[in-house]
Design a protein that fits this description.
175 residues; Pnp Oxidase, Chain A; 33% helix; 28% strand
């Protein structure tokens, strides 16, 4: 039997529907300062459906720290505890990541693989989890190498220049 939808849940659902498209497009992303907003996409632990939620985020050493004051009541926290493979939008681009939930136990799996600055921050945030906050560190996955055979080498500007040069040389009559 589904639980009754509280005013708090209704408020956040409405807020998320309004701001999520703009944040996913890159508005308020952490750019020149480390803090801002991102959209986190998780896979439902029971339904298997993808869901997106805008969150406050801080970039540290190539990783992203997200938080919520709703703690374990947040569905995204429950979802990444079961399936840590997530996707987040930063500056209008989707990026795959692996999430690491910071819990009251203070001992998170994989914490030793994080950079030193992120490990220090994780240790500093554990006391806040006792007050009901929830945190997660999003560790970026390695980007897949581009195939040279597909002609996708170099920057977009280089590819455009190479294509123009190829067209010019094809148009020139050979003498």
């Amino acid at each position: 039997m589904p639980a009754a939808c509280t005013v708090e849940v209704q408020f956040f659902r409405l807020l998320n529907q309004l701001v999520e498209p703009q944040i996913r497009a890159g508005w308020a992303s952490p750019r020149f300062v480390p803090g801002g907003l991102i959209v986190l996409e998780t896979v439902g632990r029971r339904s298997g459906r993808r869901s997106r939620v805008p969150l406050a985020a801080v970039r540290i050493d190539g990783h992203v720290l997200v938080s919520t004051f709703r703690g374990d009541r947040s569905e995204w926290v429950k979802n990444i505890a079961v399936n840590p493979r997530v996707r987040y939008w930063l500056r209008g681009r989707a990026r795959p990541a692996t999430a690491l939930v910071i819990s009251t136990a203070g001992r998170a799996r994989g914490r030793d693989r994080l950079p030193a600055a992120v490990r220090w921050l994780v240790r500093a945030l554990v006391p806040y989890t006792y007050a009901g906050w929830a945190f997660a560190v999003l560790a970026p996955e390695a980007a897949a190498p581009r195939s040279r055979s597909a002609g996708l080498t170099g920057t977009p500007r280089r590819r455009v220049r190479a294509a123009r040069a190829a067209r010019r040389s094809a148009r020139r009559p050979r003498t």
